[in-house]
């Protein structure tokens, strides 16, 4: 989830290297609770390709979603700005078909590789020029590949995030094949009830 300027630090000044050791304590980060883990695994199975493929997990954090994807047979490349997060992800997926790189999710250091799915959770809203970033991510897909974007809007006083209507509008010039799945009503995903806007968008490259 670390994506912006400075090694391991985002645009808001959050030092994700310093937070790496405790990052997985949040239920939807570490997926340590069996119910939360099962909920995310079921969603990923629906969102990602049915056959094993190449998945690029951008802003991968400690690799919890990467691990679920690998367990479903996918070959995973994870990218995160934080070296500490990347190190934890490598440990978590040791022995799996997975590679983790330190780099910017907005400009992944993948040297022209193409993927069957680009998976991004709670990252796009932090990036400047999200329309340009989405186009770049779309271009990383093979024909028939998919963007899987998990986003939302958090906070009532000073909301942060990206509303679903804005995200689908940004995707409209790139593809007409967009599916929105509302996630706020599923407390198993978050380990608690939530009342803010949380959703996933699956957009296919035509």
From TrEMBL:
One of its GO terms (biological process) is methylation. Keywords: Methyltransferase, Transferase. The keyword Glycoprotein does not apply. GO terms for molecular function: methyltransferase activity. Residues 56-149 form the Methyltransferase type domain. It holds the Pfam family Methyltransf_11. The keyword Cell membrane does not apply. SUPFAM superfamilies: S-adenosyl-L-methionine-dependent methyltransferases. Residues 1-31 are annotated as: Disordered. This is Class I SAM-dependent methyltransferase.
């Amino acid at each position: 989830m670390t994506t912006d300027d400075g090694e391991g630090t985002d645009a808001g000044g959050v030092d994700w290297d310093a937070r790496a050791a405790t990052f997985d304590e949040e239920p939807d980060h570490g997926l340590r609770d069996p119910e939360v883990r099962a909920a995310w695994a079921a969603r990923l199975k629906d969102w990602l390709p049915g056959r094993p493929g190449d998945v690029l997990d951008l802003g991968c954090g400690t690799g919890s979603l990467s691990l679920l994807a690998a367990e479903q047979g996918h070959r995973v490349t994870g990218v995160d700005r934080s070296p500490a997060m990347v190190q934890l992800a490598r440990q978590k997926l040791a022995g799996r078909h997975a590679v983790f790189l330190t780099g910017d999710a907005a400009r992944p250091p993948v040297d022209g590789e193409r993927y069957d799915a680009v998976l991004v959770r709670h990252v796009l809203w932090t990036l400047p020029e999200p329309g340009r970033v989405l186009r770049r991510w779309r271009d990383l897909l093979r024909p028939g590949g998919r963007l899987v974007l998990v986003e939302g809007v958090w906070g009532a006083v000073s909301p942060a995030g990206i509303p679903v209507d804005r995200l689908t509008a940004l995707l409209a010039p790139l593809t007409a094949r967009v599916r929105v799945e509302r996630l706020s009503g599923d407390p198993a995903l978050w380990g608690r009830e939530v009342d803010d806007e949380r959703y996933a968008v699956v957009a296919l490259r035509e």
